[in-house]
Amino acid sequence: MKRLLAFTLIFLLCLQPSFAQSVHKSNQSKLSAVKTTISIVYSFGFTDLYSSTDIVGGPSYSGEGFHGFGALISMEVHKNLDIVTGFSYVRNRFERTEAPIGVHQSTYNENINISSIPILVKYHFLKFLYVGGGPVFGINSGDRDINGIGAYTNFGVEYVFKNSLVLSFGPFVRYHGLIPWKDYRLINSGVNFGIGYRL
Question: What is the pLDDT of residue 107?
Fold first, then answer.
């Protein structure tokens, strides 16, 4: 009985490394099957700033466009379905016109720069097309407070080359200032160009 117990114990100890190795290989194969893409994105387009309060004698804003850069990581969580996050920086340009005082009306340029982190869901369909959207968490510079939660939606084309290079292009709309007590809302509508690599 003691010999049988000792033999069983030795057998299990010998079996453990091979079992652990097979589990490790299985986990590695699962991780390698997950499609992960790292991309750099450039965007540009139109920008608009709205106020939820009518300020008598206040300034008016005319959007002169925006330019943005970002780094994104996209991870497949299900067939054709990705979770996307990363970081972006957008420079919004405006022409600010003060309320007229007498016959003089001053006009000057103003920038609102926004750093944001998106958390998006991206769905691929018809081989090369995708649609996505989700919340955006942003912090802005300037005296117009639009910090906090925003929203983002996009549509586009994505092509993966045989060498794992990924190119993407498409229109999008980003909305900053969704928190109800914020006085200002900022909207970017433009296009994204992305270049990335699929791991």
Answer: 81
Positions of the chain with pLDDT lower than 70, given as ranges: 1-33, 52-58, 99-105
Q: Give burial (CB, 10 Å; 0-12/13-18/19+) of 110.
A: middle
pLDDT at position 69, please? Answer: 97
**Phi, psi angles (nearest 5°) of residue 190:** -170, -155
Residue 4's pLDDT is: 46
Nearest to 73 by CA among 33, 36, 116: 36
List, in order, residues 6 or more apart from 138 with CB less than 8 Å away: 114, 115, 116, 117, 146, 147, 148, 150, 176
Q: What's residue 101's pLDDT?
A: 67
Residue 86 contacts residue 73 (beta carbons within 8 Å)? yes
Q: Write the Ramachandran bin of 148: left for phi over 0, alpha for psi from -120 to 50, otherwise beta.
A: left
Q: Output the six-digit token pair for 78.
A: 């299900």
